[in-house]
Design a protein that fits this description.
- The complex is a heterodimer.
- By secondary structure, chain A is of the alpha+beta class.
- Chain A contains one helix and five strands; from the N terminus they run E-E-E-E-E-H.
- By secondary structure, chain B is α/β, with parallel strands linked by helices.
- Chain B folds into two domains: 311 residues, 3-Layer(aba) Sandwich (Rossmann fold); 42 residues, no CATH class.
- Chain B contains 16 helices and eleven strands.
- In chain B, helix 1 packs parallel to helix 12, helix 2 packs parallel to helix 16 and helix 8 crosses helix 13.
- Chain B is globular and about 65 Å long.
- Classes of the chains: A alpha+beta, B alpha/beta.
- At the A-B interface, strand 4, strand 5 and helix 1 of A face helix 1, helix 7, helix 8, helix 10 and helix 13 of B.
Amino acid sequence: MCLAVPMEVVEIKGNMATVQVGDVQRRACLDLVDTFPDVGDYLIIHAGYAIHRIDPEEARKTLEYFKEILEYEVSG
Amino acid sequence: MKYRDEYRDPELADRLIRAIRQRSRTPVRLMEVCGTHTVAIFRAGIKTLLPETITLISGPGCPVCVTAQEDIDRAIALCREPGVTVATFGDLMRVPGSESSLHQEKARGADVRMVYASLDALDLARRLPHRRVVMLGIGFETTVPTIAAAVRQAKQEGLTNFLVLSAHKLLPPAMEVLLSAAEVRIDGFLCPGHVTTIIGTEPYQDVVKRHGKPCVVSGFEPVDILQSIHMLICQLEEGRREVEIQYTRAVHPQGNPRARALMDEVFEPADSAWRGLGKIPGSGLKLRPAYAAHGAENHFALTVPPGREMPGCRCGEVLRGACTPLDCPLFRQRCTPTQPYGPCMVSTEGTCAAYFKYHTA
């Protein structure tokens, strides 16, 4: 039930955003999100509300960290 | 799809599994306390990929499953009241109460509506001014702010017919109860990603400091979960005990202060009864006095007889990690997803439903 999906913001009107993943569009309320988004940002959507704006830099770092630490672990 | 496919990369997953195998020496038991993790672990077949030293156990992570029988019975009593429309997230509909379910009540004519969001229930209250619309407040910290937002909105609009039956649950107190009871050995926790998006890492400090168990806040894709297991194994093998965040793209250590402030404005901690765990002090939420006019308990007499759980049902033990569904004689026999006997088989996130769908004997 804590399922929440990353969706891209395609439009913002007041406190409501239209968000999209694949072909699915939904409306999401922005009253809870910690950082107000722009169009093109990705939000984590849970039960009709955006609960988080994904930090692209953190997402990139996680993936790089995976790769680096694993090179070390597997070769070491 | 962005922020999803890259965390399903089979090559990366394969390398993580090798890293886990290399690192893991001591046998450990790790518990996930989020139903979405339970399902993701099964769907990706993670249990079969791990070395024998690592056992994953499912805990009380499915909100519908941990809802006490009395609270189900209260919801059923509410939908029998004249002039009441009950709005609920779908999973709760088929959970058997002591003598009926919301689904059965609906078939008998009760006005029970499935909603996707608290905002939909708010819309119902606007469209049905002559009825009282009761939103069933089931869920952990991820969901609570969405209910709080609806309650605040209702108060601002003067929608006095929008009510909430709060059976919300807070996860960290349940984790501590499991550790204190010591019925089941738990060496570390995969902490719930989206719950922690809201609450941040501070609430797990007691688990780490008082109980000495490492915590890693995990995302939901296979690579996220494997990395989180790797991080837990590293902590355990190195003798470290910390709260670490694997899911940094969605979790800040301080959580989401805006959502938490709203949650604190509308709700205050209360004792709450859990299926399988009993009453846990401070593990639930009730409306603060300023919002009490929206509390269903202040409009209806909601005292119900003590809940009668289904005889032979082992959901309580499953929720504590004290047994697996395979230990329950009803599993796959009298209890299936089409004819569920206990709540862990009803919810798609229930441990029994996950075993039924993915576990091949």
